Amino acid sequence: MPQITLYFLQASRSIRIAWLLEELGLDYEVKFADREAGKAPQWLKEEAGGLGKFPTLRDGDVLLYESGNITEYLCDTYDKSHQLLPPLGDSKRYAVLQWIHASEATYALHALAILYARRFQKDGDPAKTEEALSINVQKDLDYLASELEKSPGKFIMGDEVTAADTMMEFNCDFVFAMELGTQGRKWPKIEQYVKDCQGTESWVKAQKKTGHKL
Ligand SMILES: N[C@@H](CCC(=O)N[C@@H](CS)C(=O)NCC(=O)O)C(=O)O
Questions:
Q1: Of 85, 95, 129, 160, whose CB count within 10 A is highest?
Q2: What digits encode the pLDDT tens for the residues 17-39?
Q3: DSSP labels for 102-156?
Q4: Whose CA is nearest to atom 16 of ligand 1?
Q5: Could you tell me if the CB of 53 is within 6 A of ligand 1?
């Protein structure tokens, strides 16, 4: 039995961690659940423990949630060559950590504001709310596109996948799939980036093993 268990909710950020585990070449068991009325089923929350949000990961006695935190833990514990996250003392570490944090604290925040407005806004004009909130999403995407232009390779930090990509790929795929704030605009550089991420052997393996689909 592998000592690592990934509690995986369908159509969620859980794919970030499956992709990272594949990049690290680690053996892991997947406890997969489909959504029920859009939410995580109770049995998965009880079995996983923690905050009841996914991904959640168990490694022996260690229980972790928050995809950015799980990413740091897995890299610090198993990425001995520091391919995915540079070591302490290397300034490139903070360039990667910046994306790990931005993926949740900025990119997901701005996109989810629109999803929640779509779901929960009762009064006023939802289209106007979405248009106003889309400014943040579009600025975020413009910035990512400009950073990808500057990258010496097809991924954020260059030609090799890093933890910046294992976190950010989901944000881009999700925003495009749900058209969250895109307002008809296209970002071909980011569309190509998503294709390149999803074309890696490790992402393909993660998708097959988990059954992830948006
Ligand atoms: N910031 C957290 C977000 C976790 C989160 O909200 N996950 C969603 C799926 S993407 C979830 O578990 N939703 C199920 C529910 O709320 O029932 C992370 O990066 O892991």
A1: 85
A2: 999 999 999 999 999 999 999 99
A3: HIIIIIIHHHHHHHHHHHH--SS-HHHHHHHHHHHHHHHHHHHHHHHHHSSSSSS
A4: 39
A5: yes
